[in-house]
Design goal:
The chain folds into two domains: about 180 residues, Vaccinia Virus protein VP39 (Rossmann fold), CATH 3.40.50.150; about 55 residues, no CATH class. It contains eight helices and nine strands. The protein has a seven-stranded mixed beta sheet with strand order 3-2-1-4-5-9-8, sandwiched between helices. Strands 6-7 form a two-stranded antiparallel ribbon.
């Protein structure tokens, strides 16, 4: 049975939304094949669809853990996918236990960090999970450059059609929109903070700057690759999502 995110994204009635997310998953699966026979964490696994596809496909990891922020999400994933060999689910806080430190060859974090308010804390956690030489794969939306007005228009149209959670982003003033189009590597507009029903603080997409996130990653890991989706040949500034591959240094001899 498809999970709630799969229904909203991969199975969206909007062909554009379904195609974009399908391409994102295809890119993620291709990149994650490097973890064949290894241990991997999907940080912010949503409904577990990505890990299910990864474990059922060629070059599957030996073991995979999907983590989420609420018991409800963990129970839903476990109920639907707990039968998949090598796959388990846990709350985020469980990753802070000693047995998880440097225990994973790969960490995947897709479409999560743009929503995190305390991003430095989360990045530190992701680095702690990585074994020496391990790889972090991050996917985040492009919300700057020429992609921004295109995506805002698409969200508005989707909202009119009643599709998904769109428009899904706090509105921009004209000055903020211009700042986003010409944004560099620094945070360019103030980001609103929202409160979920369970009390969790989060950002929506407004003002997210993937280049600023890349700078934060570079202070912790060696960023080896930056690529785009849904079309890999596009420069990141014209794409819908951007992927960052970063590696932890090998253990000292």
């Amino acid at each position: 049975m498809p999970g709630h995110y799969a229904k909203k994204q991969l199975l969206s009635p909007s062909k554009l939304i379904a195609w974009s997310h399908s391409r994102r998953f295809a890119t993620g699966l291709s990149l994650a094949r490097r973890f064949a026979g290894q241990r991997v964490v999907d940080y912010g696994c949503g409904d577990g669809t990505f890990l299910e596809l990864l474990l059922r496909g060629p070059g599957a990891p030996r073991a995979a853990v999907g983590v989420e922020i609420t018991d409800e999400l963990v129970r839903d994933c476990t109920t639907r996918l707990g039968h998949v060999a090598g796959l388990s689910f846990a709350r985020v806080e469980e990753l802070d236990r000693a047995e998880h430190a440097a225990a994973y060859d790969g960490v995947v974090c897709m479409e999560v960090l743009e929503h995190v308010v305390d991003v430095e804390e989360v990045l530190d956690r992701l680095v702690r999970l990585l074994a020496p030489g391990g790889t972090l794969i991050v996917s985040v939306p492009v919300e700057t450059g020429l992609a921004l007005p295109v995506k805002q228009t698409a969200r508005r149209i989707a909202g009119w059609r009643g599709i998904g959670d769109y428009p899904g982003t706090t509105p921009y003033t004209l000055r903020e929109l211009a700042a986003g189009v010409f944004a560099g590597g620094r945070q360019h507009v103030s980001r609103p903070v929202h409160l979920s029903p369970d009390g969790t603080r989060f950002h929506d997409h407004k003002g997210f700057n993937w280049r600023a996130l890349r700078q934060r990653l570079r202070r912790r890991l060696r960023v080896e690759r930056t690529l785009a989706s849904p079309l890999a040949w596009l420069p990141p500034g014209l794409a819908s999502q951007v992927w960052l591959l970063a590696r932890r240094a090998e253990r000292d001899a």
